[in-house]
Every structure is written in structure tokens, then in C-alpha cells.
Amino acid sequence: MKFRAVMNDGINIKEFLNVISTFSRMQKNLIINVQPSKLLLQIESEAYDGQYLWCEIDATLRDGFFSEYLMDGIDTEHNQIYMTCLAASFLRALSYVRNNAVEYIKLKLIKTHMPCLAVEMSTTITNDQDVLTPKIQHAIPVTVVPRSEWNQYAIPLEVEYDLSIAMPAGKSLRGLLDKKKNLAPTVTLYATTNDELSLVVETEVVTVASHYRNLKCVPAHKPGPDADSNPTNLSEACCRVDTKKLAALFETINFYDVIMTANIRHEQALNIRFDMRQHAFVNYILPATNFE
């Protein structure tokens, strides 16, 4: 098995750091799935209740997120690599770039006395006499997941939704959800084809609703060959989800340039998608909940 990837765009490097930082706050274990055309980062999914969080980065474009990307999986039939590590360890390895510029970051799967993901970066230091380009290196212990256990980390890439609506600014939602999580354990999101998004919490005493208008809402894309011929006939879709879990996501997400979209499967699931630059996105799926 082989894996090597290089990032040399400063904004992409900072976005990569933000993804790892976000995931480390949501879950301690990080799963890294290396495929020929993409890199998937995901937290250990709470499959028992249908909650998933992952990031997908396109690896096919040399002017995209990765300037170099090489991999060789376990065999030709299963050309992938699954490995797990502590998200906090990955975050520490990248922490230098939070406040410092680097020329590149290189990720490489190596084996010393145990499998490790090597993280190498180069920076420039200028003093009165010399210009130095020291290299910073870390080796993160990883566990390579055997083929027989891959199904434990499967994520629902092909989920049908009913309505898809653009979301307002993350800062606005962060403040709103921070208040609502103290009012009720659940929040209901309503999307309508009139381009409106509402967030509603209900208690025995009061119902509090927040409305956003002039947001583009369209029937959600459905996977499969009949996607265009079988659009939803719903003019409104809603989903009731755990307020604290949704608020926790917006408390941790901190991307530079992102387009946020809510995809709603009526009364079943909510998907928040964060489209970043250079063909990378983060997906978060929350199942509908009925607890009071």
C-alpha cells in the first residue's frame, strides 16, 4: 500500500486544518479513506442513529486541493486504504500552520515499527544574515483497517432528499441555534418552494420561530437514472432534529469561503452540505428525532 499527497496552496492548507479541527471537536477518532479519485475524512459514524459527518476532497485535479496525489490500495480489486487515527494527533501535527505560512504540506503513509501517517511541511525563516527553509515533520500512528471491516465505515453517499434550500450566513445560524438549544431539545427546519426557511422550537409554554426569506429552494437532486424524471411533488419539507447536535456543528465549523445548503428528506433526515473551494465539501447528516 502506498499513499502520498501534497498541498501547496495556502488557503487550501488552512481549509484542511479547519476540517481536521472541526472533526476533532466532534469525535476523537478520525477515519481516513484513500481512494484513487478522492480523499474522504470522516468521524466514527454513530450508525445506530444515522448520524454521519465526512469531508470529501477531489484528488483528480492537479490545480485543485492536491498538487500531487499518488496511491496504491490493498489490491487491484479493492484499490482503497482505510486507516484510523486520533483526530487530536492530526490536529497537533498541523497546528503550526494556524499562525504561520508554509510552502507545502506533504502527507505520506510510512511504516517504521508501526504504520504512521507522516506529515511534513516546509517554512521560510529570514534573519539578518540567512534565509532558512527548515522542515517540520510529524509521524502520526495509524491503524490500517483490514478489508473485512470496511463496511463499518460505509457512509450513505446516495440518499434521496425532497427539497434543497440555500442557507443563510453561518454566523447568523450559530447565534440563533445557540439560543434555541437552551429552549428545547429539538428544532424543526421547514423549507418551502417559496424560498423560505424556518427554524422552530416548541415548548409547553411558547413556540419560537425564526424565518429566512429569499433563499433559493429547489427539488433536491435524486440519485439514479430516473433522477430528472421523478422530482418531488412537495412544496414544503420539514425535519425535526436534535438542537444541541445541530448547534455543535455550527459552533465548530469555521471555513473561509463556503456555500451552505440544507437538503431535507421530509420527516426523515436533514443534510447540511458545506461546499468549499477547489472541489471539496463537508457533509453532515442528522436523522429526524421524535423525543420530547
From TrEMBL:
Name this polypeptide is given: Checkpoint protein
Domain of life from the UniProt record: Eukaryota
A cellular component term, taken from the record's GO annotations: nucleolus
Family indicated by similarity: Belongs to the HUS1 family.
Gene Ontology BP terms: double-strand break repair via homologous recombination; meiotic DNA integrity checkpoint signaling; mitotic DNA replication checkpoint signaling; mitotic intra-S DNA damage checkpoint signaling; nucleotide-excision repair; telomere maintenance
Transmembrane segments: none
Subcellular location field: Nucleus
Record's keyword terms, sorted: Nucleus
Keyword Secreted: no
InterPro entries xrefs: HUS1 (IPR016580), HUS1/Mec3 (IPR007150)
